[in-house]
């Protein structure tokens, strides 16, 4: 059976966690394929908010198997906190949570290296979540990393020590003021590792292969967004993994010809956390309203998110790179009350009008060209049927579908599972 993918099409925080949670009842297996605890997937149901960082968003459904794939990087300390929270909430995760032996482990010194690297960059910093993501993927591609499967070997602590020593020398090399107590950090790390080892470690690509053969339905859950992809994002202001569809192939071992639907999630406007170009960013009252109404603060770091109008040039690019088959528009409710809405349909790029995403979208090269549309006043948050949506919102949706040539199948009108309109 083909594997469906669910991906963010912007700079992350599109609302992937909510949609995975809504769709989970249709799938046997939910699998994360990249990223790590830099992600914050928020789910709201029964009046409670839950934030997951590494654990797939199907964990609250008793019947779903949740797989952390080989493309993911795991911090045992943060993972333990997530598991402890699940226990508090009465979730019996042991039978439903599987970990790939090939996933890489984030060490305490990876986090320190992240901080040292960012500090040394000064104003040019990436705005990393400082969870050690970049340094861990660097060790993966540099062939030095420690994988989950290593934790089952007797000599893994020797390997750990050698790598941590090397990291300490690298931190010294940065010559920045980073205060840390490695003994303390290691104590919580080893505690986290012990708890991780109580879970089921598997050869996940074989598991995924057999599951497909047995006609099990699988949803691959992406983290971050396409514009943060290491290859296709706004480099160097990106994360260190492939967040796009191809990442699901390498991050789970899915053959490209076994990909089914590709669900592309986007917000009705645009947000970004951290540094980097953002052509439609607003610095006025409209941006402030989006941030306030949309409660735009990072689920992982609490940092305020930058807000702006929908950028169709960037969205079209993300749809192309991912082969999106269905779109899901989030946070439509946040746009209620705007007299006029703007959508960026082209860029003025060095004096020329272009409709594709160029190599460089820094402010000095690119300015957005907007189409204006009428807004709507109605509060959408209690709506549950497509027939209830205001005319101006339907016109907004029709416009996007026509421009993107992909149907918008879900319109989300609030954070709760129930605030989801299927079209
Ligand atoms: P890192 O992946 O933590 O190194 O962060 C690199 C860039 O990606 C920074 O701009 C972060 O703010 C951004 N980023 C990483 N993870 C997420 C996410 O889950 N949502 C939104 N932005 C993210």
Give a verbal description of the structure.
It is built from eleven helices and 20 strands. It is α/β, with parallel strands linked by helices and 423 residues long. It starts with a strand and ends with a strand. α3 crosses α4. The protein has three domains: 160 residues, Adenylosuccinate Synthetase, subunit A, domain 1 (Adenylosuccinate Synthetase, Chain A, domain 1), CATH 3.40.440.10; 93 residues, Adenylosuccinate Synthetase, subunit A, domain 2; 157 residues, Adenylosuccinate Synthetase, Chain A, domain 3 (Alpha-Beta Complex). The protein has a ten-stranded mixed β-sheet, sandwiched between helices. Strands 14, 16, 17 and 18 form a four-stranded mixed β-sheet that branches. A two-stranded antiparallel ribbon has the order 3-4.
**Terminal CA distance:** 25 Å
CATH topology of the largest domain, by name, is Adenylosuccinate Synthetase, Chain A, domain 1
Task: Examine the secondary-structure arrangement and name the CATH architecture of the largest domain.
Answer: 3-Layer(aba) Sandwich
DSSP E strands, number: 20
**Looking across the biggest beta sheet, what order are the strands in?**
9-7-5-2-10-1-11-15-19-20
At the first level of CATH, what is the class of the largest domain? Alpha Beta
Strand content: 15-25%
CATH superfamily of the largest domain: Adenylosuccinate Synthetase, subunit A, domain 1
Low-confidence sequence ranges: none
- Please give the share of residues in helix: 25-40%
Largest sheet composition: 10 strands, mixed
Number of domains: 3
- With helices defined by DSSP (H or I, 4 residues minimum), what is the helix count? 11
Mean pLDDT: 96
């Amino acid at each position: 059976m083909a594997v469906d993918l669910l991906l963010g099409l912007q700079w992350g925080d599109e609302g992937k966690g909510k949609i995975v949670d809504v769709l989970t009842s249709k799938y046997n297996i939910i699998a994360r394929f990249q990223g790590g605890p830099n992600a914050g997937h928020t789910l709201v149901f029964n009046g409670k908010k839950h934030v997951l960082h590494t654990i797939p968003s199907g964990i609250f459904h008793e019947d779903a198997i949740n797989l952390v794939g080989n493309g993911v990087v795991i911090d045992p300390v943060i993972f333990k906190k997530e598991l402890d929270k699940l226990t508090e909430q009465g979730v019996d995760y042991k039978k439903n949570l599987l970990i790939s032996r090939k996933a890489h482990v984030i060490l305490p010194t990876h986090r320190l290296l992240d901080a040292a690297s960012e500090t040394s960059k000064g104003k040019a910093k990436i705005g990393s979540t400082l969870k050690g993501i970049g340094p861990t993927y660097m060790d993966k591609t540099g062939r030095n990393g420690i994988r989950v499967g290593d934790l089952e070997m007797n000599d893994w602590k020797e390997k750990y020590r050698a790598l941590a020593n090397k990291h300490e020398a690298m931190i010294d090399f940065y010559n920045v003021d980073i205060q840390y107590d490695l003994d303390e950090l290691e104590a919580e790390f080893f505690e986290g590792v012990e708890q991780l080892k109580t879970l089921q470690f598997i050869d996940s690509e074989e598991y995924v292969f057999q599951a497909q053969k047995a006609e099990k339905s699988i949803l691959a859950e992406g983290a971050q967004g396409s514009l943060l992809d290491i290859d296709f994002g706004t480099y160097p202001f990106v994360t260190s993994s492939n967040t796009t569809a191809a990442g699901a192939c390498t991050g789970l071992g899915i053959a490209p010809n076994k990909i089914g639907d590709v669900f592309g999630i986007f917000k009705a406007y645009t947000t970004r956390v951290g540094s980097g170009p953002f052509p439609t960013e607003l610095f006025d009252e409209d941006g402030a309203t989006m941030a306030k109404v949309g409660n735009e603060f990072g689920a992982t770091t609490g940092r305020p998110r930058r807000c702006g109008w929908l950028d169709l040039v960037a969205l079209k690019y993300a749809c192309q790179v991912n082969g999106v088959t269905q779109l899901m528009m989030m946070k439509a409710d946040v746009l209620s009350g705007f007299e006029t809405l703007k959508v960026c349909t082209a860029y003025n790029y060095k004096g020329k009008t272009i409709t594709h995403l160029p190599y460089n979208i820094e402010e000095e090269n690119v300015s957005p060209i907007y189409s204006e549309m009428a807004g709507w006043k109605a509060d959408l948050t209690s709506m549950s049927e497509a027939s209830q949506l205001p005319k101006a919102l339907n016109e907004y949706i029709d416009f996007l579908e026509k421009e993107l040539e992909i149907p918008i199948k879900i319109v989300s009108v609030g954070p709760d599972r129930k605030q989801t309109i299927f079209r």
